[in-house]
Design a protein that fits this description.
Rossmann fold; Alpha-Beta Plaits; 2 domains; ATPase_AAA_core; ATP binding; ATP hydrolysis activity
């Protein structure tokens, strides 16, 4: 059965559960039932919101859908019938950027009239969609708040990323610690190092001047200074939890 017809049948089933009567009776009566129009409109709107309606896509069988299309279809189905609470697990996993953005827009529009509980490993997705974010480590909730609150609570730092020639890692670290003795190394991968630097007492102008001067003798290919992100916050919370459990 094509997807569009399948979703109308699903909508009929939901209406039958709410109002009584068999699904097939409601399906047969759709030609005379004014509520059919709202069913069809709800299905079309939901499919359009996740880019699964135009171009004959809605008339294909689900078996013909790719993995990403099936994931978008799951989101479309969950929003039909005006549910007050919706649970989503990794809704945009495996989607291309355009489809992911369309799905996010659909979720953003849908959440105005309902509560959506969403689990994700993507900090970008959490920041784009969630009003409140909880970070779980090993099945235990560590903290909860909006993005700004969490970054302020566990952040209060700048993140300095430096990419230099092989063998210069120790010199780069020495330079960073001369600018900020309290700096902590976050990671070191293939010549790129990331440092966490407390904002208190740190003069950004001095960091810029020192890094530009160091380009001539440290073979620095690139560097950047930014506020801590939600991903940085997650890593810090997870690292703290792992350390306390040892």
């Amino acid at each position: 059965m094509p997807v569009a017809q399948l979703l109308v049948l699903d909508a009929c089933a939901r209406a039958s559960n709410k109002q009584g009567g068999s699904v097939h009776r409601r399906w047969r009566a759709t030609a005379q039932d004014q509520s059919t129009v709202s069913f069809l409109q709800a299905v079309e709107h939901s499919l359009r919101s996740v880019r699964l309606f135009d171009g004959g896509i809605a008339d294909k069988r689900v078996a013909k859908y790719s993995g990403g299309m099936k994931r978008r279809l799951s989101v479309a189905i969950s929003l039909i019938g005006d549910p007050k609470v919706v649970y989503m697990d990794e809704p945009s996993s495996g989607l291309d950027p355009a489809s992911r953005r369309a799905l996010w827009n659909a979720v953003m529009s849908a959440k105005e009239n309902r509560a959506i509980v969403l689990t994700t490993h993507s900090m970008e997705e959490a920041e784009a969609l969630c009003d409140r974010i909880g970070i779980m480590v090993n099945g235990s909730l560590q903290c909860i708040g909006n993005s700004k609150e969490l970054k302020a609570r566990y952040g209060g730092t700048y993140m300095l990323t430096v990419t230099a020639a092989a063998g210069e890692e120790a010199a780069v670290e020495q330079l960073v610690r001369s600018l900020c003795p309290a700096a902590n190394g976050v990671y070191r991968i293939s010549g790129t190092q990331k440092f966490e630097m407390p904002k208190q007492g740190l003069r950004i102008s001095e960091v810029f001047q020192a890094m530009e001067r160091a380009k001539s003798w440290l073979n620095i290919a690139a560097w950047g200074l930014s506020d801590a992100t939600l991903e940085d916050t997650f890593i810090k919370v997870a690292s703290g939890s792992d350390a306390s459990s040892v």
